[in-house]
Amino acid sequence: MLETPQGALYTGITTDVARRMAQHESGRGAKALRGRGPLALVHQEPVGSHGDALRLEAEVKRLPAARKRSWFQGRQGLEETSCIPS
Predict the structure, then answer these.
(1) By three-state DSSP, how is residue 56 classified?
(2) In angstroms, rounded to a whole number, what is the distance separating the alpha carbons of residues 60 and 10?
(3) Which PANTHER family match (predicted)?
(4) Has this prediction a pTM greater than 0.90?
């Protein structure tokens, strides 16, 4: 999960976080992040399978920003999970 300087949160999946961050920062990533300034990686975690990652991403994207923040703050330090937020 990335955060813009304006406080917007962006959720996505990747197998290589460093590569994807470089793409976003160079303007070759998601259109929603282009021109939004320096990005901060606020949360990342490994998830079992690609399908699990897609399901988790979809659930997180449906949450309002405040719930997203409390969700990822509560998950800091988790090693591996495939839980979907409730």
Answers:
(1) helix
(2) 10
(3) UPF0213 PROTEIN YHBQ (PTHR34477:SF1)
(4) no
